[in-house]
Design brief:
Structural class: alpha+beta
Helix content: 40-55%
Number of domains: 4
Strand content: 5-15%
Strand order of the largest sheet: 13-14-15-16
Largest sheet: 4 strands, antiparallel
Shape: globular
Radius of gyration: 32 Å
Number of helices: 22
């Protein structure tokens, strides 16, 4: 394609998509900062995306956490045309063709591509993008982001590449494939696994303490709200942002199609990360706890709900309680009247600290007032009203854009400083934020805010104050669900509000020993003497005729244990590498196999040392050989650790996990990618219909 044709297509693309809304109606295409709070991931702290270089660090122009304004991008940090307009149109185009909630990640990927284009070509024209530039962008992503997050950026880069192809926005045709990030294997035993599990799961003493706080008669509103929300989190595996967006009426006593006791209603649930809205049935034992928690939260949010109802009907007028309606017609008010409007709800004498609080609030909200000499203080009522209206949430009256629920119809709303002051604001409402929960449940010695465990002096076995995070409940319930062996992976994913089962394993903190013990307890050894968990001390030999009836139709003695592969169906797929094969098992108590494993480990250690020496001398091929021997030694060490662990019962079958069987297709694909890293089959794409 000629450069002028590509340039013409680029202009047509930009002109077409600039007519569409810039993600949200309040955004203008011409602006270089777009508001995405209601378009991005639910509960995200990102308010704006900026079409700038990556080294731009936005800062709020004023301290306004409710309605923050965008930062101004210096001219030298703006994207240059035509890439600037291309990036804006591409964001709009992909938001329709490939919707996502991680808009910030998508724009960051575009910025990386912008820098790679400039670095290689010195041009700002996106039609000059080639496979080399995409490869450079992919390398920058790999270098700058951890493997756990880089895959998201690589996926976005692949979507951008396919969009460029489908829209013919290139001067030269090319093909490219995003790199495949190999995920690290998760080991489910050993010291590191125990450390990780203890970090993800809650301390049982913290759960007991929360239960005591929840059932106590405490008058501390912070203790009440945090323990009530914790009760909802422990009732089913939820994300805290889902709880913070719950509607006022979430219980359904009669769920159609679900047989539950009358005391176990269903809960209306809206997953935060793409899962479908659902009704979660409650466990009967948890139903009274959930009802009590919801009742507590309704009582705590009732004052804020009355204010919400006023603003939903009178969005331009400040809320005043009936006793203060006489102030609405006044032109000027004094400190006492201002304190009554802002905080107390009644006109009374105020102390010096209360006077200082009014004065500081007026200054922070930029409300003019005079306080010179002995003259009476004069505060213009209209100025106060306008400043307070500007402090209300931008999205008022809509609380949840997914459902259209209003603030007055939501469970977790508050007056500003409701849980941080004895006298909160009486005219400003907002959401209950995650920071309130985090500071209430997490003990931080460096923080001035005390957790509820510090306030009530709850300590662990080591004498330290207890601590817990909101996500620990989700890990805990998923682990319990796996231990019961009564729910399938699909059911656990649905219960947790996930789109697929791929993330189930991340929340399952069962060790391999836990699984072995559960299976051993569930096995009736008297009826199945040929079970996978035999009693090695009292084993009986069987005849060949008996062996034919066993489920495993092949069993071969190896140096380290037994091979279960059936060679009648296919040859050995592991090329004799028994310790790296998922069809090979070791048995604790098999002295011959254990001695051979120890001997093999000694040999491997010598080979690793030899390979390391050869690598230091830059011998050809030594790097690959060193890596292979090191991986082999690691696998053998894992097997020996399990076999020698006191937690492993005698006669236990040890079978390798998390091993992918060799694939001839993967081997061939790997060899081909080394020869031609970018020459793969061109993906099939199709143009979106022009509007």
């Amino acid at each position: 394609m000629r450069p002028d044709e590509a340039s013409s297509r680029l202009k047509e693309f930009i002109e077409t998509w600039k007519k569409y809304p810039a993600l949200l109606p309040q955004n203008r295409y011409e602006d270089n900062a777009w508001y995405i709070r209601d378009a991005g991931q639910l509960g995200s702290a990102t308010n704006y995306i900026y079409f700038s270089s990556r080294n731009f660090r936005p800062k709020s122009l004023r301290k306004d956490r409710t309605n923050p304004r965008p930062s101004i991008i210096p001219e030298e940090m703006l994207m240059h045309e035509p890439f600037l307009s291309f990036a804006k149109s591409l964001i709009i185009y992909l938001s329709i063709s490939k919707p996502t909630v991680v808009i910030a990640i998508r724009l960051t990927t575009i910025k990386i591509l912008y820098e790679s284009l400039l670095k290689i070509t010195g041009s700002y024209c996106p039609t000059k993008i080639t496979a080399e530039i995409l490869e450079q962008a992919a390398e920058d992503i790999t270098e700058n982001f951890a493997p756990t997050t880089s895959s998201s950026y690589h996926a976005q880069l692949g979507q951008i590449y396919r969009a460029i192809l489908s829209l013919n926005l290139y001067e030269r045709s090319f093909t490219w494939r995003p790199p495949t990030i190999k995920k690290s294997r998760r080991t489910r035993f050993g010291e590191q696994f125990d450390i990780e599990r203890n970090r993800k799961l809650p301390d049982p003493m913290a759960l007991e303490a929360l239960a005591e706080i929840f059932t106590s008669e405490t008058s501390d509103k912070c203790c009440m709200v945090s323990s009530a929300i914790s009760a909802l989190l422990i009732s089913n595996p939820s994300r805290v942002i889902e709880v913070l967006h719950l509607p006022l009426d979430i219980l359904i006593d009669d769920v159609e199609g679900i047989t539950t006791p009358s005391e176990a209603p269903g809960m209306i649930w809206y997953p935060a990360k793409g899962g479908m809205p659902t009704i979660k049935p409650l466990i009967a034992e948890m139903a009274p706890v959930v009802r009590q928690a919801i009742d507590k939260l309704k009582v705590l949010s009732q004052p804020a709900r009355l204010i919400c109802i006023w603003y939903e009907s009178n969005p331009k007028s400040i809320y005043l309680p009936p006793i203060l309606e006489c102030l609405r017609g006044k032109e000027y008010i004094n400190y006492k009247e201002a304190f009554a409007i802002l905080f107390s709800g009644e006109i009374r004498d105020i102390s010096r600290p209360e006077t200082a609080r009014v004065r500081n609030t007026l200054r922070r909200l930029e409300i003019p007032f005079n306080h010179t000499g002995n003259q009476p203080v004069k505060i213009k009522f209209s100025s106060l009203e306008k400043a307070i209206i500007n402090q209300l949430p931008r999205e008022l009256p809509i609380f949840d854009p997914r459902t259209g629920a209003k603030f007055s119809e939501s469970l977790l709303i508050q007056r500003r400083q409701e849980y941080r002051s004895d006298i909160p604001f009486n005219c400003i409402i907002e959401r209950v934020s995650y920071s309130i929960l985090s500071k209430s449940l997490t003990t931080n010695k460096k923080s001035k805010n005390k957790s509820i465990f510090e306030k009530l002096n709850y300590r662990d076995r080591n004498g330290n104050h207890l601590t817990i995070t909101t996500h620990m409940f989700r890990h805990y319930l998923n682990t319990l669900a796996n231990q019961t062996l009564k729910l399938t992976e699909e059911e656990i994913a649905a219960w947790s509000g996930r789109k697929s089962t791929l993330q189930n394993s991340v929340y399952n903190h069962q060790s391999d020993f836990d699984v072995i013990n559960i299976l051993a307890d569930a096995l009736d050894k008297e009826k199945t003497p040929l079970s996978p968990f035999p009693d090695m001390a009292n084993r009986n030999l069987i005849t060949h005729d008996q062996f034919i009836t066993v489920s495993h139709t092949a069993a071969h003695v190896t140096m380290y244990g037994h091979c279960l592969h059936d060679y009648l169906l296919s040859p050995c797929q592991a090329a004799g590498g028994c310790v790296n094969c998922d069809e090979h098992v070791c048995i604790k108590g098999d002295k011959r196999g254990e001695e051979n494993l120890h001997r093999y480990r000694s040999e491997l250690q010598e080979l690793v040392n030899s390979a390391r020496l050869a690598f230091s001398q830059k011998v050809l091929g030594s790097a690959e050989w060193f890596k292979f021997q090191l991986d082999e030694l690691s696998r053998v060490n894992e097997l020996i650790y399990i076999l020698e662990s006191p937690a492993t019962p005698a006669g236990a079958i040890i079978r390798p996990s998390s091993i992918s069987s060799p694939s001839r297709f993967e081997i061939a694909s790997g060899k081909r990618s080394k020869i031609h890293p970018n020459l793969l089959e061109e993906p099939k794409t199709k143009n979106l219909p022009k509007e």
